[in-house]
Design goal:
The structure holds two protein chains of two kinds. Chain A is of the alpha+beta class. Chain A has two domains: 102 residues, Orthogonal Bundle (Arc Repressor Mutant, subunit A), CATH 1.10.10.10; 95 residues. Chain A contains seven helices and 14 strands. In chain A, the strands form four sheets. In chain A, strands 10-11-12-13-14 form a five-stranded mixed beta sheet, covered by helices on one side. By secondary structure, chain B is of the alpha+beta class. Chain B has one domain. The chains are: A alpha+beta, B alpha+beta. Chains A and B meet through α5, β12, β13, β14 and α7 of A and α1, β1, α2, β6 and β7 of B.
Chain lengths: 247, 173
């Protein structure tokens, strides 16, 4: 019969560990103890009952020390893979649990050996993934998305990042980006690395944010421009010089 | 090992939460712009440049916006709005506010008023009468040093690059 991962052959008095392929030839006393446990599977077998060995030749007492040694040997042999298949209650008795007991132990019963490293790893990876997901959603967005992004190359080889925000009309955003980049290209020197322009919803104002990275820090400047007619070319060379975008 | 990992994960999580959440319930932003509000074709004269200052303060449930406009040709103008935070979306750092005009100093044909009616997307009568004004602002592009942020007014699409000021301790009254 099967006990955990061992096969118990009563006729040959042999306990075979099928995983490790090892065998244990049981002597009279060992066989007696295991036989009693199997017969009373799921129940506590009192030590007094195990100590009274009944063989074909007659009954005799088993010394307590030898009995405890046999119990520990059985626990060691059976329990490598099934940690609480056999439980020894000192001074009381021994219980061999039904096979199903050992497989469904509760996670918090024992801190060791209940989760395999694989399961453990999967849980940790899943937790970290959830953590990263939550954190990525908590972080403020680093950049809002501009409607038009251009890189403008000026006469003297400087690259200026141009972003235009227009939540009303993508065509207008492109138009203004074209206009700005045409004018910027004609500048001798542009004082800023990055220029963002946002066209107001009511089409009467344009907000500019200019930024320039210095050796130590970033320099910023805001410009607010009122415009009568958004479709007239309001960005001119004169204006770019006036507001110190072009040097 | 298992317990240690749990402790580490929880620590990292709460640490990040603590770092992110409280800082986003308080903002003290100071913003400065050059204003070109003579909506003439840009035949610019020196007097056409105005200095427009915006101070945006948000402390938990309370918000305040102060605008100062200065130029050489006319007396300084001022608008102060105060109100409450109605809704916060931490994911996008989007704040819905209900503001009210608390103080104003405006010239005839005020450039500041004209500008604000656009930026705050409100009607003049509603604004001047001190009615409650719904307002939505978004803070983004916060840099790694937490020293600068971009403030966007929704739906007017007006953007400001602002300096993040250290939190001011409450003064005893």
């Amino acid at each position: 019969m099967q006990i955990g991962c061992c096969w118990f052959d009563k006729e040959r008095r042999l306990l075979t560990d099928q995983v490790k392929s090892t065998q244990w030839h049981l002597n009279d006393h060992e066989y007696w103890v295991l036989e009693q446990l199997v017969q009373h599977r799921g129940q506590v077998v009192p030590l007094t009952m195990l100590e009274t060995v009944v063989l074909d030749s007659g009954a005799h007492q088993l010394p307590h020390n030898e009995l405890v040694g046999i119990i520990y040997h059985v626990i060691d042999y059976l329990c490598a893979k099934h940690s609480n298949l056999v439980e020894y209650i000192p001074e009381q008795g021994v219980i061999l649990y039904p096979a199903s007991q050992g497989k469904h132990t509760r996670i918090l019963d024992l801190p060791n050996r209940l989760l395999s490293w694989g399961q453990y790893g999967i849980i940790i990876v899943a937790l970290l993934a959830v953590l990263l997901f939550v954190l990525s959603n908590l972080n403020p967005p680093l950049f809002s998305k501009a409607d038009v992004i251009r890189q403008v190359l000026t006469i003297n080889g400087q690259v200026v990042q141009l972003s235009v925000f227009d939540n009303q009309s993508p065509q207008d955003a492109i138009l203004h980006a074209d206009c700005l980049s045409t004018q910027l290209k004609q500048c001798q020197e542009v004082r800023w690395d990055s220029i963002s322009a946002a066209i107001s919803t009511d089409r009467h104002y344009v907000s500019f944010i200019l930024s320039q990275s210095e050796t130590q820090s970033l320099q910023f400047k805001n410009i607010k421009l009122a415009v009568d007619d958004m479709h007239s070319p309001f960005i001119t060379q004169e204006w770019l010089h006036k507001v110190l975008i072009c040097g | 090992m298992f317990v240690l990992t749990w402790v580490f994960v929880l620590f990292a999580f709460t640490h990040e939460l603590e770092r992110l959440v409280p800082s986003h319930q308080q903002w003290h932003l100071s913003c400065r712009a050059d204003g070109y509000f003579d909506s003439q074709p840009p035949q610019l004269t020196p007097s056409a440049v105005s200095e427009l200052l915006l101070t945006f303060t948000l402390e938990y449930q309370h918000a305040a916006l102060r605008y100062d406009l200065d130029n050489e040709s006319s007396p300084a103008e001022l608008i102060l709005l105060q109100g409450d935070v109605v809704k916060v979306d931490f994911g996008a750092l989007n704040y819905q506010l209900q503001m009210q005009l608390k103080n104003k100093k405006l010239n005839d044909g005020s450039m500041l008023l004209r500008y604000l009616l656009n930026e705050l997307a409100v009607g003049e009568a509603q604004f001047i009468d001190g009615e409650s004004l719904p307002l939505q602002v978004q803070v983004f592009n916060v840099d790694d040093e937490q020293s600068r942020a971009t403030l966007t007014f929704i739906p007017s699409n007006s953007i400001w690059s602002c300096e993040i000021m250290p939190a001011v301790l409450p003064q005893p009254h």
